[in-house]
Amino acid sequence: MTVRPELLEILVCPRCQGKVSYDPGKQGLLCMKCELLYPVQGDIPIMLEDEAFPIRQGGESMTAGGKRTVAVFEITEGKNKGQIVKLPEGTCKAIGRSLDDINKTQVFSMDFTMSLDDFTKKLIMNYIAKKSPQDKKGAQEATTDSIGSFKRLPDLVLDDPAISRLHAMIFHDSNGAGVLDLVSKNGTFVNGEEVESKSLQNGDLVEVGGTKMVFSFK
Length: 218
Description:
Blueprint: H1 5-10, E1 21-23, E2 28-31, E3 36-41, E4 44-45, E5 53-54, E6 56-57, E7 60-61, E8 71-77, E9 84-87, E10 91-97, H2 118-131, E11 146-147, E12 150-152, E13 156-158, E14 166-173, E15 176-181, E16 188-190, E17 193-195, E18 197-200, E19 205-208, E20 211-217
Parallel strand pairs: 10-12, 10-13
Antiparallel strand pairs: 1-2, 2-3, 3-4, 3-5, 6-7, 8-9, 8-20, 10-14, 11-12, 14-15, 15-18, 16-17, 16-19, 19-20
C-alpha cells in the first residue's frame, strides 16, 4: 500500500488545509496539527473527515485499522546503533550509562532497574502529574518496578560516556509518548532543541549524549 509522490504533494487535510504525510506503519495519511489519520484503501487516500481516525482514539494511540500502537525508539547513531526499544502503552523506561564490564550501573538492582533518589522521584512524579492528570497514583508512588500507574520496564543502558548515569526517562500512556530529562549533565535534545520534557511525534529525533534515536508509533 503506497501513495504516489505526485498525489501526496497536492493532498491536504480537509479540516485545516494543512499538509499530510504518509505513514506506512499506520496505513494512512497523517495530519499532525489535527491529530487525524486518513485511511488509504487500495492505494487511494480517503480524504474525508468523517472517515478519519483520531491518532489517539478513546485515549489510545491507534492505527487506521483500529489497533493499539507501541512506542518505538530506534537507535540510529552511537555504539548501540541498531538497537530497537519498544514501549507498550502504560510503561516507562529509564535511560542510563553502563559503568562496568557487566553492563550494569552501580545502582542497578537485580532486575536491571536503577534505584531512584528522592529528588529524581519528585521530578518524575511532577512530570506525570502534568502529563497524565488522570493518573492519581503518579503524584504519590514511585517504586523500583512502577511509577504511578506506569509499569517500569528494564532500563536502557547505553555504552555512551557522554550521558549521565541516570540521564532521562521515556514514557508511553494513553496521552501519547514523551521524554523527561533527569537533570543530566549534557542534556536531552529533541530535533536539535534541548528540552526538560517533551511530548513526541512520529519521526522525532531524540538525542542523549552521542546517541541518537528516531521515535515512531508502530
